[in-house]
Design brief:
This protein is α/β, with parallel strands linked by helices. It is built from 23 helices and 9 strands. The protein has 2 domains: 226 residues, Up-down Bundle (ABC transporter transmembrane region fold); 242 residues, 3-Layer(aba) Sandwich (Rossmann fold).
Length: 581
């Protein structure tokens, strides 16, 4: 049960002063809180013996006030230290968790649900925070405070009466061993169900247009209710286990009171202890109620924290699929790109998506990559970006293979516009400046012009300051594509990759963007993957992929003369345009 504290030992070592002060003050307050009960017993004995004078009564009142103010002041200090530490560990773990997510590669996200990662970053880390704060409090109160009370009862009253009164306590220990494991297992399942529910909500919100278009609102609502009911039931299972503990504590407290009052009364009549000592003993016995309940809270908090920390640690323990080399090669400003006999297959697939592919792209060239769906166009691009572990063969960016370069070195040379356009819930301006936050107004205007987005600004209610909504929900597909292009262009990267990024614009706008790119990217490398042959007609080289292999390579005119796949596609698409298809 206390394993969670050993897992957080790095934090406790780092913040040892904070926790040392908090625990010492907490123990001191525990001793101070014993004094009023002892004073009450003395007052009763003095009153019974006729020794309670006015002066002595005022003295007792003064001592009570000193105790009250001391306890209040010290409690304020230890609580601020202890719960401040809880917030601190939550912040540290959340930052570590987020930094880990930012370092992870694409294969990591392919195997994990976004909703579950969100649950780990929120609910699970909150449970760990509770362990570092309220967990320490309940541990000290349930163990240290109880031992202090038992010591005071034995020393100040009678050891035989104390032993008799605590005879029922082993029942609590038995319940701890039985319930602890069950709470851990059930809370883990409850958190997993909550992660799945998070993922479902995320998918529903992101896909609301599709849900409404297919009139699936009721179906989605029923699915959500089913998953919500599952979360409710799993948390209810946790609550059922927790609820077993309180009746046991009540039984133990009742038995202790019965034994204490019965045997204590006998000792008073036998003149072994005084009436004041019996009153003090019963007050101490009442003070033990909270530590007994704290044991139940301790089980709950420790098991929740352990289960949550285990889930988070499992995520943090995942290594990068594409680690950086221990010693990165010196960065090369040239943007030559070369594939030398590259064969690659995704880790989750038994097929090879690229097969013995070789091509040389000189710095400053524009290359088009075409082929039917599934031919390997996007895989070709992902190899350049170091998204997956390298296959056989070498991929060079500059003079060195990318396996000898860090991901930062490779990607700092590349401006990438993916097929799936991700826009942030900010303004158009902020989305474009994401590519270069310190860009000048001239650079911003030029990126907008080259991407042919300037013609749309007049139709936006607030121009560049228009909020695009969640993932650009207020924009058309073509507008989102052009904002993504402008975001990549504004950084003026040596290599610009457009991964089927002109599919949502009309032929006229496509031609304008391609013409603008050729004009402004003289001497810079541009790679365009496309399904429309018109997007790559002006390229210096056109690579045709088929089942991951190089089927054709050449200029537009050369490939037209070969009368292969490229020729057929150009002819069909030209015929379709002429017929208005």
């Amino acid at each position: 049960m206390l394993r969670v504290f050993s897992q957080l030992s790095w934090f406790f070592k780092e913040q040892w002063r904070r926790y040392t002060v908090a625990i010492i003050l907490l123990v001191i307050v525990s001793f101070i809180d014993l004094m009023p009960a002892r004073l009450l017993g003395l007052i009763v004995d003095d009153f019974q013996g006729g020794a309670l004078s006015v002066d002595k009564g005022l003295m007792y009142i003064g001592v009570f006030l000193v105790i009250a103010f001391s306890s209040y002041g010290l409690t304020y200090i230890w609580m601020s230290k202890l719960f401040g530490g809880a917030l601190l560990v939550e912040r540290k773990l959340r930052s570590r968790f987020m930094n880990h997510l930012l370092r992870m590669d694409i294969p990591f996200y392919e195997k994990r649900k976004t909703g579950d990662l969100m649950a780990q970053g929120t609910n699970d880390l909150k449970a760990v925070s509770m362990t570092a704060g309220f967990g320490i409090l309940t541990l000290v109160d349930s163990v240290v405070f109880m031992l202090i009370i038992l010591g005071a009862m034995m020393i100040l009253v009678d050891w035989k009466l104390t032993l008799a009164a605590v005879l029922p306590l082993p029942l609590i220990g038995i319940m701890i061993s039985i319930l602890g494991i069950k709470i851990h297992a059930r809370f883990t399942k409850a958190q997993e169900a909550f992660g799945s529910l998070n993922g479902r909500v995320l998918e529903s919100v992101a896909g609301m247009r599709v849900i409404r278009a297919f009139r699936r609102e009721r179906h989605d609502e029923n699915k959500f209710l089913t998953m919500s009911e599952d979360v409710y039931k799993r948390n209810l299972e946790v609550a059922k286990i927790e609820s077993f503990f309180e009746p046991v504590v009540n039984i133990v407290v009742a038995l202790s009171y019965v034994i204490g009052l019965g045997y204590g009364s006998y000792l008073v009549f036998a003149q072994t202890i005084t009436l004041g000592q019996l009153i003090t003993f019963n007050v101490y016995l009442g003070m033990m109620i909270w530590p007994m309940f704290a044991i139940g809270e301790l089980i709950n908090i420790m098991q929740r924290g352990a289960a949550s920390l285990q889930r988070v640690d499992q995520t943090l323990a995942v290594e990068q699929a594409v680690p950086d080399p221990s010693h990165s090669a010196q960065s090369d400003p040239l943007a030559n790109v070369a594939f030398h006999h590259v064969t690659f297959g995704y880790p989750s697939s038994s097929q090879k998506q690229l097969k013995d592919l070789s091509i040389m792209i000189q710095s400053g060239e524009t290359i088009g990559v075409v082929g039917k769906t599934g031919s390997g166009k996007s895989t070709f691009i992902k190899q350049l970006l170091k998204y997956y572990p390298a296959g056989t063969g070498d991929v060079h960016v500059g003079k060195q293979p990318i396996t000898d370069q860090s991901k930062l070195q490779v990607r700092s040379k590349i401006g990438y516009v993916p097929q799936d356009h991700i826009l942030f819930s900010k303004t158009v301006r902020e989305n474009i400046l994401f590519g270069k936050p310190d860009a000048t107004d001239h650079e911003l205007d030029e990126a907008i012009r080259v991407s042919a987005f300037d013609q749309d600004l007049a139709f936006l209610p607030d121009g560049l300051d228009t909020l695009v909504g969640e993932n650009g929900v207020s924009l058309s597909g073509g507008q989102k594509q052009r904002i993504s292009i402008a975001r990549a262009l504004i950084a003026a990267p040596p290599i610009l990759i457009l991964d089927d990024s002109l599919s949502a614009v009309d032929a006229k706008t496509e031609a304008k963007i391609v013409s603008n790119l050729r004009a402004v990217r003289q001497g810079l490398t541009t790679i365009i993957t496309a399904h429309r042959m018109s997007a790559v007609e002006q390229a210096d080289q056109i690579l045709v992929l088929e089942d991951g292999e190089k089927a054709e390579l050449g200029t537009h005119s050369e490939l037209m003369n070969e009368r292969g796949w490229y020729f057929e596609q150009v002819r069909e698409q030209t015929r379709g345009m002429e017929q208005g298809v």
